[in-house]
Amino acid sequence: EAASGRGYIMRVLLYRTTDDVVDGIILTFTDITERREAQERLQALEQRRLDEHLRREASRTEKILNTTLDGYLLIDRDGTIVDVNDAYCRLAGRSRKQVLGSNLHDALAPRAGEPDLVRRLAGVLGGEVEHRFELLHRTSEGDVRDLDASAAVLQLDSASLVVMFVRDVTE
Fold first, then answer.
1. Of 132, 59, 135, 152, which is closest to residue 91 (Cα–Cα)?
2. If DSSP states are collapsed to H, E and C, what string results for 55-103?
3. What is the CA 82 to chain-centroid distance, rounded?
4. Beta strand pairing status for 81-84 and 71-75?
5. CA distances (Å), 69 to each of 42, 88, 110, 129, 140, in order?
6. What's the rounded Cα separation, in Å, for the pair 71 and 165?
7. What does the pLDDT look like over 16-36, one tens digit per residue?
8. To 5 degrees, how large is the angle CA 134–CA 140–CA 141?
């Protein structure tokens, strides 16, 4: 690359005599600035298209999760709520802001003899327990709701999270 910012490819060829003796070299320089700039524009365009596609997919997924009547939660291994949908917020009687970062364990009313949430989540993450179970959930008003829950492990980067869908089955 030249000081001017232009890019060049240098080719070196040996100059041989008719007796096949090297008698010099031939240097040629090809200006590749336009080609490099075109590649950079193409890469930037592809990145914008990918970013737009990812934004559309994230929006689509969010819309799907917010149209379901079942509550959706994304929980870390300690029970901290990482993401929720509107249905779960309505069921809990709390805003999204109040729910995110809170611990699901605090909203539960465990039945005597049942494993606590942390043990259930560890079991789900380890593949050792049923992925469908019932939970007693306390709303913000203090009402206790019986929830049918289904859970599955989701690997995101290096973190294992639990995706949980819950349905109010209180009679």
1. 135
2. HHHHHHHHHHHHHCCCEEEEECCCCEEEEECHHHHHHHCCCHHHHCCCE
3. 12
4. antiparallel
5. 43, 9, 24, 26, 19
6. 5
7. 999 999 999 999 999 999 999
8. 105
